[in-house]
Design goal:
Elements: H1 2-8, H2 16-24, H3 28-33, H4 39-46, E1 50-54, H5 64-87, E2 94-98, H6 103-122, E3 127-131, E4 144-146, E5 158-162, E6 165-167, E7 183-187, E8 190-191, H7 196-202, E9 209-213, E10 216-218, E11 228-230, E12 233-237, E13 244-248, E14 252-256, E15 262-266, E16 274-276, E17 285-289, H8 307-310, E18 316-320, E19 327-331, E20 337-341, E21 348-352, E22 358-363, E23 370-375, E24 380-388, H9 396-401, E25 409-418
Parallel strand pairs: 1-2, 2-3, 3-5, 4-6, 5-7, 6-8, 7-9, 8-10, 9-13, 12-14, 13-15, 14-16, 15-17, 17-18, 18-20, 19-21, 20-22, 21-23, 22-24, 24-25
Antiparallel strand pairs: 10-11
Helix pairs in contact: 5-6
Length: 427
Amino acid sequence: DTIMDEKMDQISSLPETILHDILSRLPKKDAIKTSVLSKTWREMFYTFPILSICDRESIRRPSKRKKDQQIKTFLDYGKQRLLRFSEQGLAIKEFKLKLSLTCFDLQLIYPDVDQWLKLASECSVQTLKLCLPTLKEDDPCLCYILHPGVIEARSLNNLVLKGRIRFDKEFLNPSVKFSSLCVLSLSYVLFDDEGAIEHVISHCPLIEHITLKWCYVYNPQGAGDMQISLVKSVSLHGLQKLKGVDIQGVQKVYIDAPNIEKIYYYADSDEPSKMNFDSCGNLRALTLMNVKNEFSFTFTATWFLHLSSKFPFLESLELVDCSMFQNIKISSSQLKALVLCNCSTMEKLEIDTPNLLSFRYYYDADDLPSISFLSCSSQLEVNVWLNMIHPRLYQLKKFVKQFKNPQKFSSLSLSIHPCFPYDDEYY
């Protein structure tokens, strides 16, 4: 039987790199199950360079006594997993730590988090992801204070931080550098100083992708209990390798990156917004969300007329929940994809895009606008999605007539969805 088993099990004798590649393609639960197959597979799992630790898998929130024991077991497990890599001199390709404990419990284990991140950094970690519960405006002090020493691994090229993580003033030290970092993603994190975020980014000479989502700055003199506020401005300049940004909730944004190709911007509708990215001549894709005309100092009625001269390589434009102007004319010789979603104040849209291949339009407002194609490709695909109530149905015939010249389009799709209880009499 043993000889037969050995003949049948040809996989276990494969090189370690191939076995690790097999594990990387399995769902996490299945990858864990392989550890019981044999001693070889057990060792492969414990030295698998993609390491993910989540407290929800170990802590079920029973009685306090049992929970305390489960937290201790969880901490011992995480420490032993990382020590195995450290003691054997093994490299960690990716380390992901996700914690969902209460603020009180998190504060108790922050020293352990420090130790884990330090061990990962010493093991030449390439990708580091730390996810904590979302930061709340009334408890900014209950954050994990990120120490520069735990993420200064020269091998680090991808850093993702989300939740109640705090950058203190140590990050303003000029010696803090991220010499190999290519991807930086910060969501709901807290900075002690308004300029700290720019300082960190300026020390990333190889940065290619930046994500900043609803980040905060600490203001101990804030009114009442509100001791933190959203970061108000971000200036990105001198980043020669920057390819894409995703910025949300920042009031003022300045981007001067000659090689950037993709910009995604979600405005904070409660505050005036201002963007300046006109020098980004290599831009390929632009997405604007929640930009309101009354709160924007950037986009004028003629801004969309000069897309070709400003951005000669722009191929994709998306406007989502943007209330800008009643009349908009979009003119671009290179644009291939155009998406408009719930631009409620728009009454008239003129599209002058001879190479446009895809136009998607989503609408959920009162009056249907006028849409005309001054020029377009014969390969253009048009998809219209309307969410309508009964009083608006009389406009439908007039709206559809705008697309009466079918030879202009490769295909035309119209979807109508009622936003009231279905009634055959109305339809």
